[in-house]
């Protein structure tokens, strides 16, 4: 048989075909970009831009340098120990006199008060006494300011000004982990009586870990039971698992307040059954926080585990049992390792959601049960210290990213071993 020869394609037709294919590929990419662009813009303006603004605000420090530019220059080179030169007092009086509105002085006073207690009244009192008579020498201005308020002789207020004489600062981030800058500008640990955020961060991780463990202990058996049921019954019961998603968190917390109070349904039931002689204290402590948070976050643990369990063939365990393995040993040695990806995903999801909780600990917990998000809200709504609030938010963001990176590394290690 003779070989069939294909007709030769003219060079011009080949070039037109290549151009047509290229135009088709560009059109496909353009359509794909047009379809994904709205989602990208949505994520950009609702997630990436706010996160960038949060991180930027955590290191911004505009209040002092904008309100006291001359004072900042006069303190350049000051050792931070002896009383500042008289020129610094004169520059301070000139800067306070140049403030246009009382709100500018208020912002300056609030910022310095976070560094040195009492600075708010000191700055506002001195601002109201401005301007000083013209023609005074630097020494006379110094004496006049000390006459207005003798606390200007205390170097801690001048140190607060000198430490914030830059538009960018790491002071907020340092304070969020219980560090600060000393009089010489070196980073040092805060005194023991001022170290608060380390304990709060540790408490946040502790509560989140407890909630994650309780959700795992409750969610794993339930997810396994659902995975063994026929699809119709499993879907029906899964609706009950998802019921909390259909109710506001605030409503659920209010319901737990009703149930857990001293005269609530839980204590009345236990007393009616003669299990206790007096009501338990279940509210405004760690117990109420854990119960409510586990109730809210339990579906986030069940769903990832259930989705993985549905993909595990039941024949594996039966095969292990048929080969002589005890049923319990077969379950833990054959079945459980195959569900670990779902366990890891559920635990990570629950833990990350838990470390940012605010409403539940605020309403059900006591003073020693408040998490880091409570103090972020405090700095935002009460103290109006956006820099500190953003620094604490950056700490939570960093913790979340570290946890996710650790999870990815562990998951990749498990895959490589598998």
Automatic annotation (TrEMBL):
<feature type="transmembrane region" description="Helical">
    <location>
        <begin position="207"/>
        <end position="226"/>
    </location>
</feature>
<feature type="transmembrane region" description="Helical">
    <location>
        <begin position="384"/>
        <end position="407"/>
    </location>
</feature>
<feature type="transmembrane region" description="Helical">
    <location>
        <begin position="238"/>
        <end position="259"/>
    </location>
</feature>
<dbReference type="InterPro" id="IPR000515">
    <property type="entry name" value="MetI-like"/>
</dbReference>
<feature type="transmembrane region" description="Helical">
    <location>
        <begin position="343"/>
        <end position="364"/>
    </location>
</feature>
<protein>
    <submittedName>
        <fullName>ABC transporter permease</fullName>
    </submittedName>
</protein>
<keyword id="KW-0472">Membrane</keyword>
<dbReference type="GO" id="GO:0005886">
    <property type="term" value="C:plasma membrane"/>
</dbReference>
<feature type="domain" description="ABC transmembrane type-1">
    <location>
        <begin position="201"/>
        <end position="407"/>
    </location>
</feature>
<dbReference type="InterPro" id="IPR035906">
    <property type="entry name" value="MetI-like_sf"/>
</dbReference>
<feature type="transmembrane region" description="Helical">
    <location>
        <begin position="36"/>
        <end position="56"/>
    </location>
</feature>
<keyword id="KW-0813">Transport</keyword>
<feature type="transmembrane region" description="Helical">
    <location>
        <begin position="280"/>
        <end position="303"/>
    </location>
</feature>
<keyword id="KW-0812">Transmembrane</keyword>
<keyword id="KW-1003">Cell membrane</keyword>
<comment type="similarity">
    <text>Belongs to the binding-protein-dependent transport system permease family. CysTW subfamily.</text>
</comment>
<keyword id="KW-1133">Transmembrane helix</keyword>
<dbReference type="Pfam" id="PF00528">
    <property type="entry name" value="BPD_transp_1"/>
</dbReference>
<dbReference type="GO" id="GO:0055085">
    <property type="term" value="P:transmembrane transport"/>
</dbReference>
